[in-house]
Amino acid sequence: MSEKEVVSCDHKTIESSGMRKLVVNCKRCEREHSISDCLPGLLLSLEDKYDIDSIIVSDFMEKQYIGPGVDILSQMRDMAGAIESLSSRRQNRDECMSCELRPAQLYPNLKRKFIEDPGSIYSELRSIAEKTDHKQGCPGCKKSLMEEIEILGKKAISLKSDILAEGFDIVG
Ligand SMILES: [Zn+2]
Ligand SMILES: [Zn+2]
């Protein structure tokens, strides 16, 4: 499977009559027909944008997302940020640097999988939990991993699973 890099869509924020809008231009994004093809790019576009009141996505048509749509996307953005923030946990033993569960590799991978397919977060976390469970010889890392999985698990549950299962189309 090729792992094409995920990049944000062409975007800018504008402010008008007290509303902050994220304007996303997908006219030149490579994708098929569905808005969900641009979900990863859209989430990256939202990455450092807070207090957005509406999101306007324009490709061959223009769609505006307000209220619940913005809320869902913002929650997904926060989840991706929470995953990424765990990548920086330091490790100092040689064995830990080459462990498949080392944060610098585990969490960027998990983030990429999440933004490409948000609904996969549950099975991904389950599989990480299983690997953690079987991990031997490093109680320190095991403990940290268990705590991190619990934090992410709680967040994932609070993202409505039915919305994740439907992907982005439900808000469209
Ligand atoms: Zn796009
Ligand atoms: Zn370790």
Strand content: 5-15%
Low-confidence stretches: none
Task: Please tell me what the overall shape is.
Answer: elongated
Structure ligands: zinc ion
Features of this protein?
binds zinc ion, four-stranded mixed β-sheet, 48% helix, alpha+beta, elongated, 7 helices, 172 residues, 2 domains
Written account of the structure:
By secondary structure, the chain is an alpha+beta fold. The protein folds into 2 domains: 1-66, no CATH class; 78-158, no CATH class. The chain contains 7 helices and 4 strands, in the order E-E-H-E-E-H-H-H-H-H-H. The protein has helices spanning 39-45, 68-85, 94-97, 103-116, 121-134, 139-158, 161-166, and strands at 10-16, 19-25, 54-58, 62-66. It has a 4-stranded mixed beta sheet with strand order 1-2-3-4, covered by helices on one side. Helix 2 (68-85) runs antiparallel to helix 4 (103-116) and helix 5 packs antiparallel against helix 6. The chain is elongated and about 55 Å long. The two termini are 29 Å apart. Bound molecules: zinc ion (2 copies).
Short note summarizing the structure:
The protein is α+β, with helices and mostly antiparallel strands.
Fold blueprint:
Blueprint: E1 10-16, E2 19-25, H1 39-45, E3 54-58, E4 62-66, H2 68-85, H3 94-97, H4 103-116, H5 121-134, H6 139-158, H7 161-166
Parallel strand pairs: 2-3
Antiparallel strand pairs: 1-2, 3-4
One zinc ion binds at residues 9, 26, 29, 38, 41.
